[in-house]
Amino acid sequence: MYDCVCYTCSYSDRIKYHKRFEILQSVYADLSTTERSDIMIDKDKVKTAVNLLLEAIGEDTTREGLIDTPDRISRMYEEIFGGLDMDPKEILAKRFTVKDSEMVVERDITFYSMCEHHLLPFYGKAHVAYVPDGEVLGLSKLARIVEVYARRPQLQERMTNQIADAIFKELKPKGVMVMLEAEHMCMTMRGIKKPGSSTVTVATRGSFVDNESLQSTFYGRVRNFRL
Ligand SMILES: [Zn+2]
């Protein structure tokens, strides 16, 4: 007889669950001893975890519709959490010299992320602006930097700050302003169920901080000026 601490064993197939529990424990042990930045997505661990999850909700993991689900999710997670393996520094390294310092705004950058509290999607638009100080980024880079921070377990507030910090630190512009507008599935399909509500977060750095006229220029360009 096994002496398993997994309470599931007491009312189900004891040996089977005990072995699964051992696998899960080794997953956690690995995670705690590995540096976060060294972790690449381990597809086998994702498969094991999804199998356990399906079992835990009482599903038959051998039925046709579910048999390939763990494998599908492991491949999908590689994509939607791929930002963990991307280096924002690399993306922001390519820069061009400019003389003037007019505000650059890239708006309506669509993003999809995963709320780290529920592992449910939140998605919407990012608007990113900066006032250059001698250098500008290639236009696609602002969208790529949003992608880096969206493709990981995330909080909208933190993501907003991370985008602003990365640009402010690497490009060293006079100022940065970032606004994210997103709908959270954890708000709309469960809990208080408020479809259509959106969460707006803003981060300012450098010359944008407490500068109402610069901020209202930003809001004006994001809101009013439509092509
Ligand atoms: Zn959530």
Q: How would you describe this structure to a colleague?
A:
This protein folds into two domains: 11-84, GTP cyclohydrolase I, N-terminal domain (GTP Cyclohydrolase I, Chain A, domain 1); 86-223, GTP Cyclohydrolase I, domain 2 (2-Layer Sandwich). The strands form two sheets. The protein has a five-stranded mixed beta sheet. It is built from nine helices and seven strands; from the N terminus they run αααααββββαβαβαβα. Helix 1 (14-33) crosses helix 2 and helix 6 packs across helix 7. It has helices spanning 14-33, 43-56, 64-67, 69-80, 88-91, 139-150, 156-171, 185-188, 212-223; strands spanning 95-97, 104-115, 120-131, 135-137, 153-154, 175-184, 199-206. Strand 2 and strand 3 (120-131) form a beta hairpin. It is an alpha+beta fold. Bound molecules: zinc ion. Zinc ion binds at residues 115, 117-118, 120, 184, 186.
